[in-house]
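Hypothesis: this fold can be encoded by more than one sequence.
Test: take the structure tokens below, design a sequence, compare later.
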């Protein structure tokens, strides 16, 4: 099984990257492909979950080991397949997702893509103790008790901002756009959607 790949980003799309590893192009589906945009001139490491089905062999990739581990825990939950798990990681802050599970915050979880109330309850039942047992890694250290889980519009913006900077936009341009955009982006909006809205404003000048 493939655990990680290291190579150069040959192609960047909305749902995946193509990673050139010694002349072989691997299509890797990612929560946020744009996080690799700024690194397309140098080798990158993508941590892989290798999914084998009867009709396809799929690679799901992550920027960190912690995201890889969380993805693998999510797909252990009944009703959550790889695509839904990928949507959860792309539609929310991974640390906030972990914290919501540990705090049994169903209202936060049902805002994630593809998650209804029953699935949110299963996530809490199946994963709460497992995530606590993992410990150590920063992603699995919950937000301190008493602090509100981030639910504002900033969830997708930092990653969208990095993708836009890789396209050549300046900090000043992005700061200006965010002042307009921040009231028109929902907390569970995917990164690529945030980027599209930002690009529309940037094109408009």
């Amino acid at each position: 099984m493939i655990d990680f790949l290291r190579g150069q980003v040959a192609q960047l799309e909305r749902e995946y990257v193509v990673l050139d590893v010694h002349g072989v192009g691997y299509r890797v589906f990612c929560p946020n492909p744009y996080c690799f945009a700024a690194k397309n001139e140098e080798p990158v490491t993508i941590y892989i979950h290798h999914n084998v089905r009867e009709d396809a062999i799929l690679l799901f990739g992550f920027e960190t080991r912690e995201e890889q581990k969380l993805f693998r825990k999510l797909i252990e939950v009944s009703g959550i397949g790889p695509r839904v798990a990928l949507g959860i990681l792309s539609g929310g802050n991974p640390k906030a997702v972990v914290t919501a599970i540990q705090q049994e915050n169903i209202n936060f979880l049902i805002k994630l893509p593809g998650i209804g109330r029953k699935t949110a309850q299963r996530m809490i039942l199946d994963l709460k103790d497992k995530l606590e047992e993992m410990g150590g890694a920063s992603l699995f250290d919950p937000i301190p008790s008493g602090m509100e889980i981030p639910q504002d519009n900033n969830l997708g913006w930092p990653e969208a901002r990095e993708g836009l900077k890789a396209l050549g936009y300046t900090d000043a341009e992005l700061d200006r756009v965010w002042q307009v955009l921040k009231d028109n982006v929902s907390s569970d909006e995917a990164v690529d959607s945030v980027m599209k809205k930002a690009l529309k404003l940037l094109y408009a000048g």
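The chain is about 40% helix and 20% strand. Helices lie at 65-74, 82-91, 94-102, 106-109, 117-134, 157-166, 171-181, 191-204.
Hypothesis status: open.
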